[in-house]
Each structure stands twice: as C-alpha cells, then as structure tokens.
UniProtKB/TrEMBL annotation, chains A, B:
SUPFAM superfamilies: Winged helix' DNA-binding domain. InterPro entries: Tscrpt_reg_Rrf2, WH-like_DNA-bd_sf, WH_DNA-bd_sf. This is Rrf2 family transcriptional regulator. PANTHER family: HTH-TYPE TRANSCRIPTIONAL REGULATOR YWGB-RELATED (PTHR33221:SF15), WINGED HELIX-TURN-HELIX TRANSCRIPTIONAL REGULATOR, RRF2 FAMILY (PTHR33221). It comes from Streptomyces antibioticus. The lineage of its organism: Bacteria, Bacillati, Actinomycetota, Actinomycetes, Kitasatosporales. It comes from the Bacteria. NCBIfam families: rrf2_super (TIGR00738). One of its GO terms (molecular function) is DNA-binding transcription factor activity. GO terms for cellular component: cytosol.
Amino acid sequence: MRMAKGVEWALHTLLNLDMVGGGPVGSGQLAEAHGLSPSYLNKQLQQLARAELVVSVPGPRGGFSLAKPLETITLLDVVVAIEGAAELFQCTEIRCSGKIGELSPPPKGACAVSAAMRRAEQSWHDALAAQSLADIKADLDRSPLVRQIVRSALT
Amino acid sequence: MRMAKGVEWALHTLLNLDMVGGGPVGSGQLAEAHGLSPSYLNKQLQQLARAELVVSVPGPRGGFSLAKPLETITLLDVVVAIEGAAELFQCTEIRCSGKIGELSPPPKGACAVSAAMRRAEQSWHDALAAQSLADIKADLDRSPLVRQIVRSALT
DNA sequence: GTAATGATACTCGGATATTGGTTGTCCGAGTGACCGTGG
DNA sequence: CCACGGTCACTCGGACAACCAATATCCGAGTATCATTAC
C-alpha cells in the first residue's frame, strides 16, 4: 500500500505554479523543473484539471495555471484528484460468505470491522483537509530565495 | 491506493480465533469459515505469526491460535503486520532534482510537503492504535448468537 | 499388558505463477501565433 | 500603414505498452498420532 508518486508531483507542481505567477506554464517546463517524465506529469495535471484545481490552456503559449488561490486548495483535494475518492479499506463483506455467512442471518447493521477502519480513515481525511497548500507555501517562504529560483527555472 | 485484502481477512480471522477459544485452528478451517483462499490466508497468518499476534502449531491437530488477548491487539498492529511499516507517502525528494534542484543549495530542513503529509498520516496511525480488537468484539457481541455460529462453523 | 517403533496423515512454511494497477511513452486533435499578401 | 488569410509550430488530450506489487497456487519439511510388534 503506497500512495502514487503523482501526488507528490502534483503538490510540488501546484506550489511552483503559484510562485511563478498567473500565466500558464507548459507541462514540459514543469516537468523539467523537477526532472520528471513530461508525459506522465501531463497526465497528472489532467487529473488536476478535471478536479478544477488547475485550468488548461491549449495551443502555443498554453499550459496549466492555478484555478484558485492556494488558500482554498487542501491536501485532501489533491489526494482525491490524483488517487480518486475510493476508500483505503474496502469491505468485501466476507462476514456474509463461507460457512459463517450461511449460518448467520442476513446482517442488519454495518460491519463492525469496516466501521472501525472507516473511523480511522476519517481522521486521516480530516487531517488532510485541515492543511491547505498555502500553509505549506508559508513553510517554503522561510527561505525567500526559493521563489526566485523557481521563477528562473520556469522561464 | 487500496489496502490489501489480507487486512480484512486477518481482522475477521483474529476475531474468530478469539471466539472459538484457546485451541489452535488450521488455516483451512479458518478460510472455509469465510470462503477464502486457504493458501493465501495461510500466508497472511504467517505474517501475523511473525508479528507475534498469533502462534503457529505444526503437525496434526495444529494450526494457529491467538498469542495475546484481543485487548492488547490494535488495528495498527494488524495493518503493520500485513502491509508493513512503510509510510503511505514516500518522499522522493524531487525538490533536489531537475533544474530547481541544481539551482538550489542543498536543503537544510525537511521537505515541507513530506512533513505535512506525515502529519496527516500520523493521525491515521493514532486512530488505528486507539482501537483494539476487543472494541470491535464488543460491537459484535451485541447479537450473542454470533459466537455460537462461529464456534459451530469452526469445529 | 506395556513400551518401543515405524508408517502415516495432517499441518505449517516458503518457493513459484498469475493478475491488476501504477508508471511510463507515444501520437493525434486543436489552437493561438506568425508571416505574407492585398487593400 | 492596416486588415486579412493561410501556414506553422506548439500545447493538451487520450490511447497504447512496460513494469511492479498484490493475489493466488502449489509442493516440500516437520510433527503428533496411530497401528504394529516385540518383550
């Protein structure tokens, strides 16, 4: 069980898009900034576009730009955009299969195991939703030359 | 990103092992109870044995039995036993690669993105560690005939 | 009758295929920019 | 000098392969049981 690399790529790329300013930036430049596969980063950016976190501009001088300010983008938004909204723990209802399932009456309530796992997952989601990309950007701005480096790398 | 099925299998199997009593139960019977692949459940049980959540008894009349009371087994223990202790979000340090990486001085602090993701993951771990299998068993004991069904299915 | 002994059946344990999903690559559709031409 | 039209290069977008890990399966190693036999 490992989170897709695309999440890390997307997070850094979104931060870069903010630092560079408003204009659209091509996926090739964004990939070069961190030595990533351009085509694959492009695919991740399309996922972000579908989630309406970025807007895509076709044609020459096109590319991707932020759709909203970083303050309104949470870590959960990015994770869901890349990974999808499926739950980590997916209950297969094995309690209704096999010998035990045949002997038991059809269960009424929810599966206790599933409910417990869902509770834990909920607090993960809450913690992800509580942190916005602006918070992370504030950390990066501790060393103010970062912004200059990003801007010069993306021109 | 999806949690392995083995976690669900392990959780239900551990609960069954508790309900059936102290004697060892073969992986075949445990699998039949929920209609699972016997060999694959056996593999998961070996993982639980390495984590010292169950003890394995070889030979005829052998099988697996609980190594400690359910009160001392948390959801986190089971997840780590099956999935391993690796983190969901694994930082690749892409901030040190590509153009930006070459232009930047070697970073001093930890990656802000990684730190934020780790915070969220920590609260997931905390929530998993806060729930023991005894808590789940208490939920199941709402309908007291469950125990009888499990015992009759595992004899 | 009792104890030793060998065969046997049953279990765990790990080595070996198979499948599904992530990762990576490629080419086509579409669009804005640029250049040349005519008014 | 300005407006218009055609060509072009550049970008996104989705379809297509490669790789890795989870899933599933199989066979060998080890052990308690049971029957048999000798004392």
